Amino acid sequence: MATSLPPVAIPGQRLGSVASYAAGPGTHVQQSNIYASIAGPVIVDPAQPKTQTKSTLRVSRMVPGVNQAGAAPSTSSAPAPKSKPRYNTLPAVDSIVLARVTRVQKRQAAVSILVVLDEASAANPDPSKAASDNDNVASILTSAANPENHSNTDELRFQALIRKEDVRAVEKDRVVMDEMFRVGDIVRGSVISLGDQSFYYLTTARNDLGVVMARSDAGNMMFPISWKEMRDPVTGAGEQRKVARPF
Amino acid sequence: MMADRRRVNGPSGGTRPAVFASLAESGTGVSERAQRQRQPSELRKIFLKTGLIPTASGSSYLEFEPSASLAAARINPKSLIPPSSALKLACTVHGPKPLPRSAAFSPNLVLTTHVKYAPFAARKRRGHIRDASERDLGVHLETALRGAIIAERWPKSGLDITITILEAEDDRWWADAPDSHDASWGMMNVLAGCITAASAAIADAHIDCLDLVAGGVAALVSDEEKQSSAAPKLMLDADPAEHRSIVSACVVAYMPARDEITELWLKGDSSKASLENGDKRSVHEALLDGAVDAARGAHTVLAEAVRESLLKTVG
User: Where is region (Disordered) located (chain B) (predicted)?
Assistant: First the structure.
């Protein structure tokens, strides 16, 4: 079935018929044929026996060395870090994002979205697959968490809001925003809505969502000690946060 | 005309030596008009490469092969004035990025195009502020690309496409005086180049589009000395410097996979012209077919450039 499929596709290239495949991301359908809409490697996702009958055809945005580090030969995965690690993915509903807090108000916290996590790695967080991606995420975060690094690049990032009632699932009315987030924290959140003209809306009302990296008043990186507290390893002082489950 | 008040401007038209009619007519060999060496349906060679600008999410650089006379003049210069010029342009794509705060909600990708001639790009010096013709090119380019991009896949985001023209096509042979048929013919070739380059840059930025959209130009030219009765000839990818007079020209943005035209720009008066004997098509049809053929030719280069950069990243 997959005999005639090209290994890579360019926009406008015919990939197959809708009779034999379902159209996935990076493709579009024109006159019951599937065409590629971006340039990239062609990937066939086998049909799930229960839900689908046809295998899904998609064109990947990822460089194969990054996306499937285990499957690709070592020659191609070695130079992968110097090439562009990820391509522009927009936040969509239910996607997991990492964001930096830019402002904390009584009713909401404003954040700017740094990374939209890949849907494949978000769906099945396989540590071996995510490892290569996490490396560059870590580098993004250390630069972003550095308070001296606050430049005007926030203008170029997507802005989002975490409303008071979306911070946690229980005791929503007792939430005090100052005890949940501070400016500069890195938050893992899930997109609940594309929102209005300027802001997306995020929620952290899950155990695995919340603050993942934060600095204390003294400026040291803190480690989490409970779901609502982080501690400074140098001064020993604790600070309150809505902490994400570390693993 | 708008003046740029923030900078010290040079004289508006002072970078080329003055051309005197006596020099142009003296037959010193300097002033020979460039001759078209190609077949009527043969395009100039195109150099196209993507991903040259690392800070942009997508970029491309496009260059047309210089005409034979220009290549000869570069090796053995007889004059300070180059006999013709070749197109060179760079295209950057920034985005998708958030819309400015003042902008209204948009469920689609908002496309913005800027086309700017470098001050030194043409024989007449350009200002730093975009003038009417540059804005016109921007609008034409936006129309051409809007039909190709799948905008609904990028809600709430904007895409900025910026083209800098480093060397522009001439509108006519430099020693010719403007005549009744004169128009900014060079713009049409520039637009075709812009469309092809922008399409490559968009593919480099991994923005969803229906097809790689390519630009092509065809022109009806008459090379006779006098206004004779000979029918004008149809030329693909006509360089205005190589022809005595262009009757009309047409540029299209064309998607071969779907056989669709997203942008059509026809200039000149072709109502009185007629084609050579045996050609039953109307002049407009012939121009349009020619431009589409030229775009098909440019598309092969475009597809190859995109594939090449893709294979480089895949490894």
Answer: 1-38
Provide the β-strand partners of residue B265: B251
Q: Select from B23, B156, B173 the least CA-distant residue to B85.
A: B173
- Cα–Cα distance between B48 and B62 in angstroms, integer? 5
B310 touches A at CB < 8 Å: yes
Q: What is the pLDDT of residue B315?
A: 67
A-chain CB neighbours of B214 within 8 Å are none
Q: Enumerate residue ranges in chain A where pLDDT < 70.
A: 1-3, 62-88, 118-155
Whether B98 and A156 lie within 8 Å, measured CB to CB:
yes
Per the CB < 8 Å rule, is A41 touching B314? yes
Nearest residue of B to residue A67, measured between CA atoms: B314
Domains of chain B in start order, with CATH, are 40-314 (3.30.230.70)
ipTM more than 0.85? no
Q: Measured between CA atoms, how close is A10 to chain B, in angstroms? A: 7
SS3 for B221?
A: strand
Strands (E), chain B: 46-50, 58-64, 88-98, 110-117, 157-167, 214-222, 233-236, 245-255, 260-268
Report the run of H or E that residue A230 belongs to, with start and end. strand A229-231
- Kindly tell me the burial class for residue A170, based on how many C-beta atoms sit within 10 Å of its own C-beta (0-12, 13-18, 19 or more): exposed
pTM of the model: 0.83
Across the range B95-121, mean pLDDT stands at 89
Nearest to B308 by CA among A10, A64, A101: A10
Residue in chain A nearest B156 by alpha carbon: A197
Sign, CA dihedral B181-B184-B189-B191, equals negative
Cα–Cα–Cα angle for B172, B175, B179, rounded to 5 degrees: 55
What pLDDT was estimated at residue B71?
A: 81
pLDDT in tens, B265-296: 999 877 777 777 667 788 889 999 999 999 99
